[in-house]
Write a structure and sequence with these properties.
The chain contains 4 helices and 20 strands. By secondary structure, it is α/β, with parallel strands linked by helices. Helix 2 packs antiparallel against helix 3.
Amino acid sequence: MRTEKQKMLAGELYRAADPELQADLAETRTWLIRYNRAESASERHGLLRERLGAVGARVDVRPPFFCDYGFNIRLGADVFLNYNCVILDVVEVVIGNATQIGPAVQIYAADHPRNLEQRKSGVEIGRRIQIGRDVWIGGGVIILPGVTVGDGAVIGAGSVVTRDVPPGVTVMGNPARQRSKRVGIPP
């Protein structure tokens, strides 16, 4: 029989109140206190490597930063997250090389069943988020579960991204809609 953590990581319905998951959340809360109090960029980078699933070179995550578990977050090289970013990483959240993320961005891989009885039973589900390389995400953006953002895309400040964003496209609004496509996106 699979544990609730195994179900969560597989993107299946799981019980978030499971003691093992609650212990992981408590560990992350302790780590976040250390991270958000760290005074130097080198100390913060070391702490990111301690908790996150992968951390590329020259990553800068400005505190305060918040996440559920941390170990499901994968950051490529030269990634920048500005102040007050939140990543609900019940499943994998991947952010590609040289992506820049503005302040107060919220990335939600955590989701809930649409069926009322399932929701009332306390089960949850996660849906993977993939953000490509060279993406620019403006401040206050919300990215919903299961979204993929293609390489070179731009997401305007305050947008709510409910659907996949193709490579090289600029989206904005609530819900985010395509406004333009850049020419010459690198392969």
